[in-house]
Structures are given as C-alpha cells and as structure tokens.
Amino acid sequence: MRIRAQILAALLCGGLVAAGTGVPAGARGAAAEAARPAASDPGSPGTQTDPPQALDVLDQRDLQPSGTFSWRTTGRNVHAYVLGDRISTTHTTFGGRAVNGPDFTGNPQCPLFDNWGTGLASAVGGARHGVAKEVRIIGVRVMACANTTTPERLVQGLDWVTANAVKPAVAVLNVAVGADSAVDAAALRLIRSGVTLVADSGMADSSGDRDSTKVSPARLSDTITVGRTWGDLIESRITRTGPNVDLFAWFSVMAIGGGSDEYAPTLNSAGLVAGAAALLLAEQPAWTPAQVQQALVNQATPGLIRNPSPEAPNLMLHVGP
Predict the structure, then answer these.
(1) Is 250 part of any domain?
(2) Residue 6 covered by a domain
(3) What pLDDT score was predicted for residue 114?
(4) Is 45 exposed, middle or buried (0-12, 13-18, 19+ CB in 10 A)?
(5) Which domain holds residue 268?
(6) The predicted structure's pLDDT at residue 59
(7) Are the beta carbons of 100 and 89 closer than 8 angstroms?
(8) For labelling alongside 94, which of 114, 120, 132, 239 has CA 20 to 30 A away?
(9) What's the chain's Rg over C-alpha atoms?
(10) Where residue 41 falls among pLDDT bands split at 50, 70, 90?
(11) Do the strands 215-216 and 176-178 form a parallel or antiparallel pair, or are they unpaired?
C-alpha cells in the first residue's frame, strides 16, 4: 500500500490537462519514414514469459497473472504515431523500430518527460513493455519542458499525422487540453482520414473536476477514450471518467532513458489500448477507426472493475491470443 501511495504521489506531481509554422525539427526525416510502405506481413504468433503485470493480465479474463502474454500478430504492418514528448529511440525495447518525427515545440533542450514519450511508446510497441511487438513507431513532439501541451501544438501534431500517416495506422496521446473546438476538429480530420485515434481520458484538475467530457480530444465519440485503473480499481485522482470513456486499462511499467531501464507503473494505459488497436489493424488493415473502436469494446471484459463509474462502462481491455 505504501508503494502504491508513493507511485500515486509521483503521478500527481503534474497534471495531464493544460490551460487553455514552418517546417518543424525532424519533420522531413519522419515524413520519409512515414512514406515507407508497411510490410504486408502482420507478424507471427508468440508468447512472452515474465511480462510486466499489466501485460500479463491482458490475455486473462479474470485479471489474474499467468506469467505469460500471448498474441496472434505483432503489428509489423502497422504504423503507430505517438503524440507526446521525444522518444528515446535507442532504448532496447524498441529494437530500432522507433524514430522521432516533427517537433512542434521549438525543439527546446530540456529533460524529457518519459511518461509522455518513451514510456507511452513502449506501452504501444516495446518488445518487453508493449502490446504490438513489431509495430513501427513515429514520435510527434507536442510537449516539452512540462507534462502539458497547448491546443495549438496538439492541432499541429494531429494535422501532421493526418497529412503523413501510412495506413493502417493508429495515433495515441495521453495528454489532454480543456475542451477545445480546434483540437476536436483536428482529431476528427485525423479519424476521417482513416487513422484510429486513442486518447487518455485526462486527469482531474486542481479543482477536483473529474468529468472526461470537458477535455479534448477525449470528449469526442469518434475517439477511443481510455480510463486508467490500478488493477481492478479506478483511481479517481489520476483519471477522469464519463459517458465518453470507451474502456479502461491498467497502467503499466514503462521504458525510460536510452538504454534498458524501466520505471514503476505509470500513466500509459492509452498506449496499451493503442497497441491492441494495432494488432486488430494488423489482421484487418482495411478496417475503419469505427470498426476498430467497436472491436475493442466488444472484446473487452465486463464487470471486473470493483468501483465502477456510474457513467462509464465497466469494461477492461482484453487482448486474446
């Protein structure tokens, strides 16, 4: 319980909700990477032994660890666009599959916020930490020097992915801004272009407001909106809930730095769901974002959350082999 409290305290040191051109750094190289056609091979079935706990339970209907995590495909033919901070692409969990793309922050030289870059990307497609073991990862930097962003940066990042994504593709972010029509419009442009968008439901603000319908782009029905749990409990201090939430996922151990280090469970539940979306797209590359969203909801496990939100569905992410 003490460890859990320490982790929660660390997570609460900063919020996920922010107040209120030219060719960005890295855009040219990332556009070239994005232009590379994805391989048609979705990857092979496999099993990981001794995975992080949140991965371990993804293929279990009762959330009980089995010591393994199994999959049918690896997402080799899918591109994943991670909107957050820079990714430490040399981390061993990526195996050379991650690149940093455009930087919409002005490229300031400041410490990375691994939760929103390396950690998020590792939950999507890290060999040790992620769901889609061979997905191609492109970082789109919309955060710098803080664990928040601005609506303007978010719009730029979403529009860049809309213009450059190689499909099948999924985009993911675990940062939100206050309800913003420009961000919503950019998110809808992305989704209507055929890219599946997964977004975190956001963190309660300083006033204690936990309504997930008040943040963008999570409030959109077309977005796959993810709430966070600690095991089978919703931690109200670190997740917003509401009728726009599609499902919940346990937050997981993440990769940090450029070597092989990892960090205790953190705010990357949306990354796990994005990885699950990539696996669906690997097998069904012509699916629309709406079909991916419905499939994730349909295969989720009902009734596992012990303190369900009265407005959000009692559904936990499930990835079956």
Answers:
(1) yes
(2) yes
(3) 65
(4) exposed
(5) 2-316
(6) 94
(7) yes
(8) 239
(9) 17
(10) confident
(11) antiparallel
> Residue 18 is encoded by which pair of tokens?
């922010």
Looking at the structure of the chain, the number of domains it has is 1
Report how far residue 295's alpha carbon sits from residue 317's, in angstroms, rounded to the nearest whole number: 11
Q: Which residues contact 23 (CB under 8 A, 6 or more apart)?
A: none
CA 232 to centroid of chain Cα atoms:
19
Beta-carbon count within 10 A of 258 CB: 15
CA distances for 246 relative to 134, 290, 294, 318, angstroms: 25, 12, 9, 13
What's the CA gap between 185 and 244, in Å, rounded?
A: 17
What CA–CA distance (Å, rounded) separates 179 from 199? Answer: 14
- CATH number assigned to the domain comprising residue 267: 3.40.50.200
> What's the pLDDT score for residue 17?
39
Dist. CA 229–CA 79, nearest whole Å? 27
Residue 321 within any structural domain of the chain: no
* Secondary structure of the chain as H, E, C letters: CHHHHHHHHHHCCCCCEECCCCCCECHHHHHHHHHCCCCCCCCCCEEEECCCHHHHCCCCCCCCCCCEEEECCCCCCCEEEEEECCCCCCCHHHCCCEEEEEECCCCCCCCCCHHHCHHHHHHHHCCCCCCCCCCEEEEEECCCCCCCCCHHHHHHHHHHHHHHCCCCEEEEECCEEECCHHHHHHHHHHHHCCCEEEEECCCCCCCCCCEHHHEECCCCCCCEEEEEEECCEECCCCCCECCCCCEEEECCCEECCCCCCEECCCCCHHHHHHHHHHHHHHHCCCCCHHHHHHHHHHHCEECCCCCCCCCCCCEECCCCC
Structure tokens, 221: 């029905």
pLDDT, the chain, mean: 87
| pLDDT given at position 20 | 35
Q: What was the pLDDT predicted at 209?
A: 83
